[in-house]
Amino acid sequence: MIVGLALVLATAACSAGTPAPVETGQVSLTMSGWALATTPEFQALVAAFKVVEPNVTITVQEYDPSTYENRLLVDMTAKQAPDVIAIRQAKYVTQWANGGQLLDVSDLASKLPSSIGGAASYIVDGKSYGIPYRLDSWLLFYDKDLFDKAGVALPNGKWTWADYVGVAKDLTTKLAAAGVTAKGTFQPAAQSSVQGFANAQKGEVTNPAGPYFAGDYSYMAPYYQNALDLQTAGAQASFSDVTTNKLTYQTQFGKQSAAMVLAPASYIPVLIGQQQSGAAMQFAWGLAPAPQFDASTLKTPVTFGDPTGLGINANIDPTKLQAAKDFLTFVTSEAAAKALAGVGVAPALSSSAVTKAFFAVPGTPQDATSKAAFQTHLTYPENPPGPDQVMIAMVLSDAHTTIMSGADPAATLSDAGTKVANKAW
User: Fold this and answer.
1) What torsion, rounded to 10 degrees, do the Cα atoms 296, 196, 409, 424 define?
2) Secondary structure (H, E, C), 129-156
3) Reduced to 3 states, what is the DSSP secondary structure of residue 369?
4) pLDDT per residue over 224-277, tens digit each?
5) What is the pTM of this model?
6) How far apart are CA 423 and CA 269, in angstroms?
7) Fold classification of 138-265+278-302+388-422 (topology level)
């Protein structure tokens, strides 16, 4: 994460958008979390809330990130879980809500600011079981130095996928002519690197009767054709190379082996930290919106990203409930968002003040396109809520591996759709 960042939480907590202090008496809450040494958001929120409500003390209980959801479910089932549940992956909300582990917080969700993203990911059967505080929307990262070496114009924030593919190929050719071995772009191995954009832009993931849940994945085919085209052209590393050699954002974009990469906003502080530590090369970089299917969404680009949120343990001590609700309300305020932005975390709340706080962090790009890309977009969930979400994701993960290994996209997606439609997990 970012080295040497500091935040004057008292100032942030007293800024516009802060809930008024509440009279709760002395209350001690516990909250689940993971990797506390490298995940500053928990303590940033706790410290900012303490300024607003000094009578409430929140202790973060750390879980191993590799077993977080499983261990947390064990504790929730045994009624030994923390009072406030940090929801790392929204796809588990349906399971936990139906299992009686999470409290209905629809009363809080109904009052969320309109500029909060990700709230829909916590709705199960019309009720809300979580409140988003961060949202890692996927953006286009680009290496300004490599673009300059290739003599290619920088992204202007209005690219379709056709533009992106064309520029990636052009970069690869022109960099090679300049004696640079970097490829035009890098695609990580995860299914989200293709399916996330397809689902957000064409999958109607907020519609329970839409193609994503119905099992009609033909809309993904053009996105896979682009990815395979780039792979065949040598404009990005092959899926085989990525998986076999365990290629990462750091080894490819961070080491200037690729001029572009599509990645979540959470990569911003990681890249800054790696450049500061020497784990990544020193180069100028910027952000742009994710490429769009066509020109119809260029004004407000559509991308994807799952939120991270907070829920309340259904078995919380009733005397602590109001304090827990006050904390969940606070994390959606501008004060909380600015506290998160100050430690390099992209909040669920979007505003000019939050963008200003985020880009005040040393190492962030300062151009207008980068700031606009960060602030202005529509973000749909990577894992939309639904009773079969975990199983659908598994089927589509297998399809992704099969296609990127060379199988026909249309036939493979048709097979996946049949499995989902028939629930043949």
Assistant:
1) -130
2) CCEEEEECCEEEEEEHHHHHHHCCCCCC
3) helix
4) 999 999 999 999 999 999 999 999 999 999 999 999 999 999 999 999 999 999
5) 0.87
6) 40
7) D-Maltodextrin-Binding Protein; domain 2 (3.40.190)
